[in-house]
Amino acid sequence: MENLISLVNKIQRACTALGDHGEASALPTLWDSLPAIAVVGGQSSGKSSVLESIVGKDFLPRGSGIVTRRPLVLQLHKSDEGSREYAEFLHLPRKRFTDFAAVRKEIQDETDRETGRTKQISSVPIHLSIYSPNVVNLTLIDLPGLTKVAVEGQPDSIVQDIENMVRSYIEKPNCIILAISPANQDLATSDAIKISREVDPTGERTLGVLTKIDLMDKGTDAVEILEGKAYRLKFPWVGVVNRSQADINKNVDMIAARRREREYFANSPEYKHLAHRMGSEHLAKVLSKHLETVIKSRIPGIQSLINKTIAELESELSRLGKPIAADAGGKLYTIMEICRLFDQIYKEHLDGVRAGGEKIYNVFDNQLPAALKRLQFDKQLSMENVRKLITEADGYQPHLIAPEQGYRRLIESSLVTIRGPTEAAVDAVHAILKELVHKAISETPELKQYPALRVEVGNAAIESLDRMKEESRKATLKLVDMECSYLTVDFFRKLPQDVDKGGNPTHSIFDRYNDSYLRRIGTTVLSYVNMVCASLRNSIPKSIVYCQVREAKRSLLDHFFTELGKMEQKYLSSLLNEDPAVMERRAALAKRLELYRSAQAEIDTVAWSK
């Protein structure tokens, strides 16, 4: 199952390269779901020496005080026997380090780049991969050493800052805690054991390592701890003997140090019975095997997370739309297709599939009738106005039977006031049609992708609606003008004449203009105007729908399409200039989706082979 850890290492590297870790999210990231081993210990507990013993190389910075000031994510990859050992940093892709002294210097330099040449710390990790035939497949996270006091050059908060950083890693349920404690100090004061117990009280995730066993006072030993009697963990303690400072100064290599470590445990009377499970080599194997076991147990949860995340990524990529074509024909097709989608959504609003079209009916059913009712025909047909217009229409020759010219003037002066509500209805429908354009644009995901095209389509649609409004205004006002220009004769023929009612047409002019006579004229005109209003109430909506709504459904973007065919490729390209943030987001999502699909395929293969 060695390939399983290699697979997890690969996925972790890819996650890191894409930034798919440590992000605030309602859903845990793939990185967070993958098991890893965090190395925890107090300053000068021998943490660095343990890591170097596992790797078999000198590569970590050393010194007094706080040396590890940024988390180091160390991924070990077992390569073929006889292959060359080398290291790679994520921040220096394609650069291989074969000199591990140069690796140490790069860790120091990269730490200083983030924190400056101070004793400050940073939670931004350094990612290092080491390839060697002498290592086991493993991922270790070396964390800054826990401390109890701030030294000169450090803020007072450094103690809490380091603890918070360590907790942010070891609190995760998928984190295995490698707790490093020196044997020459009381275990009750161990920083690593204290913080591990707080986040893992049952010891289910904690592996204990005891360092500096060879430096214990004479007459004392660590047998009770190593046997699990002094402090029991679920997994057996592992004791290690690291190189002394003198060995480091003499450049004693790791192979010799490991041999001496094996000899120490094999030849010590106190530890001889434990020698088979002591030492750095055994620790590396235990860690690799345990990590492999944890990964196996987490596969169903990892698969579930991957499948859910793939669905979310595909959904968001679909919402962002496809990347644009490179050639002119492809660009023109893309624009036409997007416009077609917009036009379809616009029609759905008008046809009732989506909300908004009902507002037009409200104009016809409520606003227009209410506006017609508000026309004050009674003022127009007041006694004074009727007398005035009748008299003026007669001129020097009084009318003989009925004041026809007076009737015409009274009717025309009343009907002309209907133009106001008519134009208001045209404007109201125009406003609704414009509102639906903006709504349809906002509901067309593809237009959000291209701001320039969104503006162009919006402007073209509004220009078309403006032209339709003018045509509708002319056509609808003509309906009113028609009523003014030709009166319905049958209406007046059916009216009783004065002679029929016993009137005497030879009465004097003054009798003809008495109040009763003028009132009857006003009533007749009002009846006729009301008849015309009732007719226009039906014909005005028909005209508006025909000239505006119907045309908007049929040819909203026709003029734009005509102009589109004349545009040069450069201008077409400018219409498809995406928001840079959208382009970056799509590229990042595509890479992340590729990672998750690859992880899905490989983890599924491993799961089926179990």
From TrEMBL:
Superkingdom of this protein's organism: Eukaryota
Residues of the GED domain: 518-610
Main location class: cytoplasm
Domain Dynamin-type G: 31-300
Species in which this protein is naturally found: Manihot esculenta
Family designation: Belongs to the TRAFAC class dynamin-like GTPase superfamily. Dynamin/Fzo/YdjA family.
UniProt cross-references to Pfam families, sorted A to Z: Dynamin_M, Dynamin_N, GED
Name the UniProt record assigns to this protein: Dynamin-type G domain-containing protein
CDD domains: DLP_1
Keywords of the record: Cell cycle, Cell division, Cytoplasm, Cytoskeleton, GTP-binding, Hydrolase, Microtubule, Motor protein, Nucleotide-binding
Cellular localisation: Cytoplasm, Cytoskeleton, Phragmoplast
GO MF: GTP binding; GTPase activity; microtubule binding
GO biological process: cell division; clathrin-dependent endocytosis
Xref: InterPro entries: Dynamin, Dynamin_GTPase, Dynamin_GTPase_CS, Dynamin_N, Dynamin_stalk, G_DYNAMIN_dom, GED, GED_dom
GO cellular component, one term: plasma membrane
UniProt xrefs under SMART domains: DYNc, GED
